[in-house]
Design a protein that fits this description.
CATH architecture: Roll
Strand content: 15-25%
Number of strands: 5
Helix content: 25-40%
Largest sheet: 5 strands, mixed
Number of domains: 1
Structural class: alpha+beta
Strand order of the largest sheet: 2-1-5-3-4
Radius of gyration: 13 Å
């Protein structure tokens, strides 16, 4: 079950999920923490988040423009997750 990330510091069976830039605004959430039990890969995490938050999240999290980083390294959806990992969803960013 998804819960706020606050208060989860130091727990190792938790994944910290962060949403950046326009994705944060579209989803209405900057970060959260989820229990890592039964979440083996980034793809599993996305399915879990869609189940928790609604089908509307699928298009946002699986968009080809959205990159995923685990512990600050860009990864593919097949990447295995471990207890305590930080997973960040990164939309394209424009600057000027």
């Amino acid at each position: 079950m998804a819960s706020p990330a606050i208060g989860c510091e130091g727990k190792t069976d938790v994944l910290r999920i962060r949403y950046f830039a326009s994705l944060r605004e579209e989803l209405g959430l900057a970060e959260e923490a989820v229990t890592s039990a039964q979440i083996g890969t980034v793809a599993d995490l996305i399915e879990f988040l869609v189940t928790q938050h609604g089908e509307g999240w699928r298009d946002h999290l699986t968009s080809p423009q959205v990159r995923v980083a685990v512990n600050q390294e860009l990864v593919e959806h097949e990447m295995a997750l471990s207890d305590g990992d930080e997973v960040a969803f990164l939309p394209p960013v424009t600057g000027g």
